[in-house]
Amino acid sequence: MKKYTKILTAILAVAMLLSLAACSSKTPSTESDVPATETPETAAPEAGEAAFTTVNEGKLTMGTNAAFPPYEFYEGSNIVGIDAEIAGAIADKLGLELVIEDMEFDAIITAVQTGKIDIGLAGMTVTDERKEAVNFTSSYATGVQVVIVAEDSPIASVDDLFAEGASHVIGVQRNTTGDLYTTWDLEDEGLATIDRYSKGAEAVMALKTGKVDCVVIDNEPAKAFVAENEGLKILDTEYAVEEYAAAVSKNNEALLTAIDTALQELIADGTVAEIIAKYIEA
Ligand code: ARG
C-alpha cells in the first residue's frame, strides 16, 4: 500500500469508528474494539479548565502541622484555622472533599513530593530551597519571623543575637525558616546554639523553663503562645519577613494550576481576607 492510501484507510477507519460510537452511545457495549463513550480521566481539558488528578479521587488531601495557631490548630478533634478554611474553600471550588492529615512540619514537603498528599498548607514560607523540591501557589499571607523572650531578658533586639561574642541558646521548630535562618546566620557563625523542637509550643515551654534564651518563630503563633504563657514577650524588631504559599507536587502541573486559579479567585473576591480577619485582629 502506498503511503497516502494508508492514511486514507486510517481516516476512513476512524470515521467509521466514530459513527459507530455515535450510534452506540446510548447502549454501552462490552466489546473492547468499540471506543469508550465515556470521557477518560486524562481527557484534554476544555478551555479554561484543566483536567487534574488528586491522590484520592474526589478528595483534596492536605498535609499540615496542626500546632501553629491561628493557621492550623485543634479545636477538640478537628483541625481548624486559616489554612484549613482556605483549603476548604479551594476544595469547594474544585468540587472536592477536603481531607486534612496532621504530620511533622518537616514531613510535609516529602509527603507532597512522594504523592502522599495533594497540597501542603501550613503557614509555609516560600524559599528557594523548597522551590527546588515543590511548586508553590501564589502567596496568600505574609509572615514575620519574630523573637520571643522572657519579660526580663537581657536580649532587647534582634541585633543582640548578632552581637560580637553572642552565645545564646535559641529554640526553634525543626526545619522551619526560624530554624534555617538562625542556623545559617548565627549557629554557623559561632554566635548561638540552636535547640530544635518538633513543635513551636515545645520551644516556648523550653523558654519558660529557662532551657533556651529565646525562640525564633512566626509572629502569629508567637502572639498565641505569648498570650497563653505569662512572663513572655515578643521583641519589637523583626527577624525576617516572608510569604506563605501552598506547596504542590512538581509532577502535577494541572493540579497546581487548578489550585492556584481557585486561590487567586478567593483572594480577588475577598474570601481569603475574610478568613484571615476571622482569626487575626487587624
Ligand atoms: N513559616 C515557617 C516555615 O515555613 C514556619 C511554618 C510552620 N508551620 C506549621 N504548621 N508548623 O518554615
Overview of the molecule:
This protein is of the alpha/beta class and 282 residues long. Helices cover 38% and strands 23% of the residues. The chain is built from ten helices and eleven strands. The strands form two sheets. Strands 1, 4, 5, 6, 7, 8, 9, 10 and 11 form a nine-stranded mixed sheet that branches. Strands 2-3 form a two-stranded antiparallel sheet. The N terminus is likely disordered. Arginine binds next to loops.
What is the fold's blueprint, element by element?
Elements: H1 3-23, E1 59-64, E2 73-75, E3 78-80, H2 82-94, E4 97-102, H3 108-113, E5 119-120, H4 128-133, E6 135-150, H5 158-162, E7 168-173, H6 177-187, E8 192-197, H7 200-208, E9 214-218, H8 219-228, E10 232-234, E11 240-248, H9 253-268, H10 271-279
Parallel strand pairs: 1-4, 1-5, 7-8, 7-9
Antiparallel strand pairs: 2-3, 5-11, 6-9, 6-10, 6-11
Helix pairs in contact: 2-9, 2-10
Bound molecules: arginine.
Arginine is lined by residues 64-65, 67-68, 72, 105, 122-125, 143, 173, 176-177, 218.
Domain unit count:
2
Number of strands: 11
Strand content: 15-25%
The largest sheet, given as strand count, sense and whether it forms a barrel, is: 9 strands, mixed
- Distinct small molecules bound, one entry per kind: arginine
The CATH class assignment of the largest domain is Alpha Beta
User: What value does the average pLDDT take?
Assistant: 88
Form type: elongated
Helix content: 25-40%
Can you name the CATH architecture of the largest domain? 3-Layer(aba) Sandwich
**Poorly predicted spans:** 1-48
Gyration radius (Cα, Å) is 26 Å
CATH superfamily of the largest domain: Periplasmic binding protein-like II
